[in-house]
Design goal:
This protein is mostly helical. It has helices at residues 5-20, 27-34, 38-45, 48-73, 78-94, 97-104, 122-136, 145-164, 170-185. It starts with a helix and ends with a helix.
Length: 187
């Protein structure tokens, strides 16, 4: 539950985006929904593009929490940890209202948020790769350091692709990605 003014504003923006689309989010409507002044909205979240990035990065944090829980549940087997993480992420994504609002906007004119998940996803990719790198290290994968980063990058990008456009069940997709990642990470 949102407790700070900033959290209330971001939560209101997410609610508006999921119910009416990103184009319907204005600072005036956001201020009214959060019970604050427009100036407070600007002070707390800055511009509308900054608000969009905040919404996406906060949602990413929830996705990464799912990943960390999956790795915690499989401390002895890297391939199983990857499979569980991918399954859980894809399952979480399938029910994620904000993600659906962003992706479905591609079929209309309201596409301002989509680049944050695709062409301008640098901060998203960087954060995801950092978490995965930290989680993979304790398993001591049999791959040299020069190839570990590109292997993690590959897995993160493939999973993001399936988050955006699923091609099978989360379990099937996760098994395929984990099989491939397991082969690469064994060196």
């Amino acid at each position: 539950m949102a407790t700070t003014t900033r959290e209330r504003i971001v939560a209101a923006a997410v609610e508006m985006t999921t119910s009416s689309g990103w184009a319907a989010v204005t600072m005036a409507r956001l201020a009214e929904a959060a019970g604050v002044s427009r100036q407070t909205v600007y002070n707390e979240v800055g511009s509308k593009p900054a608000l969009a990035e905040t919404m996406i990065l906060e949602e990413l944090a929830r996705f990464l929490q799912v990943v960390e829980q999956a790795f915690d549940a499989e401390p002895a087997d890297l391939t199983r940890a990857i499979e569980r993480a991918v399954t859980d992420v894809l399952t979480y994504a399938s029910a994620n209202k904000l993600l659906h609002a962003v992706v479905s906007a591609t079929h209309g004119a309201d596409t301002e948020l989509l680049p944050l998940l695709t062409t301008n996803a640098g901060s998203l990719l960087g954060a995801a790769k950092d978490v995965i790198s930290a989680r993979v290290a304790p398993y001591a994968p049999g791959i040299d350091a020069a190839h570990l980063d590109p292997a993690i990058d590959m897995v993160v990008r493939v999973v993001l692709s399936h988050v955006m456009q699923p091609s099978g069940s989360p379990e099937e997709t996760a098994a395929d990605i984990a099989w491939l990642a397991g082969r690469v990470l064994q060196g």
